[in-house]
Prior knowledge:
- By secondary structure, chain A is mainly alpha-helical.
- Helix content of chain A is about 75%, strand content about 5%.
- Chain A has two domains: about 270 residues, no CATH class; about 220 residues, no CATH class.
- Chain A contains 20 helices and three strands.
- Chain B has three domains: about 130 residues; about 140 residues; about 220 residues.
- Helices cover about 70% and strands about 0% of the residues of chain B.
- Classes of the chains: A mainly alpha (about 500), B mainly alpha (about 500).
Amino acid sequence: METTSILPLLILVSSLIPGILILLLKEEQVGLRTFLNLFGAVAKVSLIAWVFAGYLRGEEYTFFFSLALDLTFSLRVDQLGLFFAALSAVLWLVTTLYAIGYLEGGMHRRRFFAFFSLCVTASTGIALSGNVLTFFIFYEFLTLSTYPLVVHRGTDKAVEAGRTYLWYTIGGGTILFLGVVGLFVLAGPIYFGQTEIIASLISDYPTQLTILFFLLLTGLAVKAAIFPLHGWLPVSMVAPAPVSALLHAVAVVKAGAFGIVRLVYDVYGVGVAEKMNYLNVLAAFAAFTIIYGSVRALFQDDFKKRLAFSTVSQLSYIALGVAIPGVLTSTGAIVHLVHQGIMKITMFFAAGNVAETYGYKNISQLNGIGRRMPLTMGAFTIAAFGMIGLPPVAGFISKWYLGLGAVEAGSYWVVLVLLASSALNAAYFLPIVYRAWFYEPEYEVSRLRQSGRLEAQALLLIPVVVTGLLSLAAGVFAASAGSPLSIAREIAEKLYMLL
Amino acid sequence: MTHLPTSSFPALLVGLPILLATLSLFFGSKGRAVVGLAGSLLTTALSLIAIAEVTRRGTVIHILGGWDPPLGILLRIDPLAAVFIGMLALVGVFISLYAWWYFRVREADTGGLPQFWPLWLFLWAGMNGLFLSNDLFNLFVTLEVVGISAVALAVLSGKTTALTAGLRYLLAAITGSMAYLFGVALIYGSTGTLDISLLGQVLEPGATTTFALLVITLGLMIKMAGFPFHFWLPPAHSAALAPVSALLSALVVKGAFYILLRLWMEVFGVSLTYAAGQLIGVAGAVAVIWGSWQAFMQTSLKLIVAHSSVAQLGYLLMVFPLLILAPGVTTDSADWLSPAWTAGIYQVISHAFAKASFFLSAGIIIMALGHDRIESLRNLVGNMRITAMAIGLAGVSLIGLPPSGGFMAKWMLLKGIFLSGQWWWAPVVLTGSLLTAGYVFMLLRLAFAPAREMDTFRPVPKSLEVVALLLAIGSFLIVFPADFLIQFLESSAVFGSGIEPIMEGGEYGNN
């Protein structure tokens, strides 16, 4: 069934071409730019749906060409990759709408939307990469295409944040590069899923492969914001809200987390990683990051900063799930890729709405905001409940599977970490929810919302409502076929069936 | 060598630019530029045709005047020479186009500097001759032609800084030549021949040979600004006019490297030791770190770019320790030779494109601002988006991020390092990349920063910006023909070869 298909390439091209074209347009050509953007976003979602359908029918899509010499560029569709690609594509579509509303009348929008498209190209490229080299190329491409977005506002603070961002990501990329070349020299061009290569080499080169594993892991951990390599993420919050929402809640950080999933499951294989005790190290760092991020979040008054530290914490659930072997924990980790994405993007949209509509950037300013922005804060509340792990929101499912799997694996300490984290999540999210709904508003009457008018621009409101509902739906319909959970479960089961 | 097919291309490649340079001297200011540009285009076309000839027929030779070596002079284009000639032609033609518009814009304040054109064509002829020579003395002559025209170009602006730097450049160039010539004399004295192919067979190891190797290497290291002889490069390259800086940094220094590579691999194998390879590798490693760090510390754009050349040339020297094998290792078992050679070639080519683009961009910025202090680059993205993009792309190639030519070079270098087990070079490669990222993004950070009132960008012809951008894009496109390029190079005897040192231990022990 292995046939070459240009479909995976088209999925990338659907955002690459709009990105390049937008760069060539004039700043004033808003209509054409918006059209290109939305056309690309819709095309990407449709293409992924098409490929997904084909994949379920048992078709395989691969695309590769020899870049040069022994360097092969390869795209391949598998369930895990599609899962991540679908997440990026759907959220890109939503965020594009949001960004159009958010940046209306702003400066340098051409540049913004162009690089935004390029970022999404990079992140879908990461999702669909068939081998380590291709993954690395897109990983670096993501770093570069995100930089102009971080410094978008051009203020000194933004430029400074851009510098921090680059030191971390270029540094991580360099370490990753070392690992990638080393792996290439030792094991040849590894395609994802060929875990047998490492398995056959591990007894001959245990030291080298261990060093390489940790080089690769370190390179990926930077983007996955695992302690102590998380420092760039809170600083990058200076970027405009859509960037924080899509890139720093989903695309960039997930590239790291997804990379760790690939590294453990599809390059080294769980068997080797477990036998060589790599997973214990990963588990320790992930667990520490979960607690550390939550504790730091407690003390942030800046709304986006609190969300950022929460992201640091929540991302490590994925790493933790990967680090505890077992079908259930894997399911939890993989499904959290999606769940964390839709919940966190909802929260960033909400924070952006509040800041854009009322100019409030701090949590202490949010008294009674729920009455003025019921839909926005309603969505936020759903997401917050999900993050804490209350049923039936998506986050509960992730935590449930992680906890269940940990018990099954006999790692009871993980349950403690999850409980502690949930308590902390509640401690830093519930005050926001409570403040928004139950505090007396302090605003003057003239700023009261007039009846009949929307609480915010439609383009800002629709996305937050959509992703809020998605967070709920992913939890409520978790048991039905086609839900993120059922797909994640299938991926995890396949993974462990092979062992 | 004389059994190889003959062709008149080698002679033409040297003769045509000389002829055109001489012709241009008969014209006035305007006409000279026209002849110069036409000459550049013609030479490029000729170079490409000659390369096509080599891909078809393999190595071709030309025997000047019909006298066989060792009496006569033999020019030959093998695939390695062809690749260097191609690089010179492709980068050179873009620099020529740039120079055409550059001097037209600056006609008011410089009088158009028509001397640029004959000097550049002489330089081109010298470089072509250098790549084609198969004879130590001939190489000396071409080195001199290149050196003298390069110094003359460097002081073209007539400014004091350029003259001071130019004088230092001249002294370094002369010292280098003298050292080289001394080594050649020693070789000639002991063997009676200057022909490279012949020397490869007859050269005997011994004190004389080792000493000759030492002074020749010294001379060439000075000429290519290898650490610690790099002191002359940053002032000379940064004080020259933009098109000249590009020529010097992207192309001229590669000439000395080419000779060094050929002589080490084709002539001096008998005298080289593993330690010698390691030693020159250390010089390269220090250059990478030191040059990048210096670039990072500069505050004017052209000095950053010039110091970056010191570092980028260091990577070239880091190829040698991989090519000179440890005692007991045979060339057949050394599977890292091909990656190491590929790394060297790609470093040469991608640096040529990226550095030319970088210097030309710097020239554009000086035109727009009147100076090149980097704090004035603020809001470059808003004012000159094409130039900002050129700097960004060229910078990415210098850092070695995928999928640039620089990435290819770093990938292959690291691969060679790992395969050979000489892992101690790996941190140097990575630190170099990080420091390069440091100065490239220092520039980009400013380019994105908000404008200040005091900086006004004067308009600059778009064509200049486009040329710089095309060169930057070129540093990415060169990755794609890699398969063809390496296959082509592999048909040359020297490519992929390694040195199995005969002696162990001391400087010149007995075999």
